[in-house]
């Protein structure tokens, strides 16, 4: 086991910049999720850690030691790619056992059998041990590929979207298993995903990557409650965080506040924020934090309100999603069917949100959050 640190990694392929500036540290024995959209540079980051991609700039350190000159085979990391490399003509048992039979990591046969059985049982593929890999479904193959990584002790596991080909139910149970395995073994794990639910549920810390840059690193709670930018805020949560454009205005009673372009939302500025009058900002809140009231409802204490018209309602099981149009911006609210079920398309409504749940961001898709 080892800590893994990346310092200022840059990597280009021809004219494509895959990594512009990537720095983060994964503590020894911890589970780190790297989240980002397609093309963000997640796989290239993993390959750089594994030594399969040589950075143009920057340093990779294991336990504080620069591993720039250490060959991939000597880095003692186990990596699982999304496009898994298995031996199709061999059965599952031999595929799982092969890392433990290689000259470098050879183990006594009794230990190999024990370990293979354990891993196969954990991943729910023990009934497939005698089956040829070529005769498996994609989801089964993906679990074999993951098993090949987990079967041998390593300083770090590097997992690239290892659950994408599984159905939702299996993915959820594999997530739980993975969490258990990583905790029990205490192996440093870097887990790449573009699924925010996976990142939030698995990661002790999460690094958010976009266009080859680390935008924020933090615990799931920090990332959720204090997103560094609009990009991070909108990368987590479905429906996405709602953003209303507006500007800072003078409060005749003293101080300043935020007013959205429709003029109906007035929200306090974050404590300590020193933003000039006229500065364009965006107010953001999570659809789950909002409630829909009647058009003339009184605004509850400690809440802010915005008025609009219901554009669409959509039933999602016991929940209902209501899209409210406010001066050209669609604003999603999610809640219980029982609570929101009375709302009909075309209704005039008041959307209320606890003032403490409203975040302020600078203008633009990369706008930084203002406040502590
Ligand atoms: N071998 C390569 N040759 C040329 N360009 C590459 C190569 N590998 C990656 N890239 C480019 O670098 C960028 C980052 O790619 P990378 O595979 O790291 O992204 P990713 O976040 O893992 O994406 P995905 O989620 O789609 O797998 C992309 O623009 C990609 O096209």
The CATH architecture assignment of the largest domain turns out to be 3-Layer(aba) Sandwich
Name the helicity range: 10-25%
Provide a count of the helices.
9
Q: Strand order, biggest sheet?
A: 6-7-8-3-9-10
What is the count of β-strands? 21
Mean pLDDT figure: 91
Low-confidence stretches: none
Q: What are the secondary-structure elements, in order, as H or E?
A: EEEHEEEHHHEHEHEEHHEEEEEEEEHEEE
Supply the CATH superfamily name of the largest domain. Answer: P-loop containing nucleotide triphosphate hydrolases
Question: In short, what is this structure?
Answer:
The chain has about 375 residues and is of the alpha+beta class. It has helices at about 40-50, 90-100, 110-120, 140-150, 170-185, 195-200, 220-225, 230-235, 335-340, and strands spanning about 5-15, 15-25, 30-35, 55-60, 65, 75-80, 155-160, 190-195, 205-210, 215-220, 240-250, 255-260, 265-270, 280-285, 290-295, 305-315, 320-325, 330-335, 350-355, 360, 370. The chain starts with a strand and ends with a strand.
Task: Walk me through the structure.
This protein has 372 residues and is of the alpha+beta class. It contains nine helices and 21 strands. A hairpin with a 5-residue loop joins β11 and β12. The radius of gyration is 25 Å and the shape is elongated. It starts with a strand and ends with a strand. Bound molecules: adenosine-5'-triphosphate. Adenosine-5'-triphosphate binds at residues 13, 16, 18, 36, 38-44, 194. Residues 13, 16, 18, 36, 38-44, 194 line the site of adenosine-5'-triphosphate.
